[in-house]
Amino acid sequence: MVALSTAEIESALILHSDVAEAAVIAGYDELTGQCIHAFCTLKPLVVGVVEPEQQLIKNLILQVRKTIGPFAKPKAIYIVQDLPKTRSGKILRRVLRKIVNNESDQIGDTSTMADEGIIHHLINAVKGTTH
């Protein structure tokens, strides 16, 4: 079995010229137990000018496969406006994990978040109701 860190996958994702930030978490998967979910924000200069979202997601998956290998392919990649962060800029991966695992009603304390409003956007992105 290959041990894989989220930092390795995040590094592979930000090699793409359109990606500003990436956060990778493990989500629950009925078949394999765990699977990879990635959240990416785009660079400000390319927002609205990038390739269509589905093509970008395909290219990001290819980027990970090329950089690390096919075993590191994310099950899902979400293009989002922003990532949940503390006021000091640390990404709150626990929030992303709760949303991906359909536990958004159990996110817990969000008082340290810089922008609590981003949670609704993230939930919609995971459900596929926004772009």
TrEMBL record:
UniProt cross-references to InterPro entries, sorted A to Z: AMP-bd_C (IPR025110), AMP-bd_C_sf (IPR045851)
Listed Gene3D superfamilies: 3.30.300.30
Domain of life: Eukaryota
SUPFAM superfamilies noted in UniProt: Acetyl-CoA synthetase-like
Segments forming domain AMP-binding enzyme C-terminal: 8-90
Protein's recorded name: Acetyl-CoA synthetase
Organism: Helicostylum pulchrum
Phylogenetic lineage: Eukaryota, Fungi, Fungi incertae sedis, Mucoromycota, Mucoromycotina
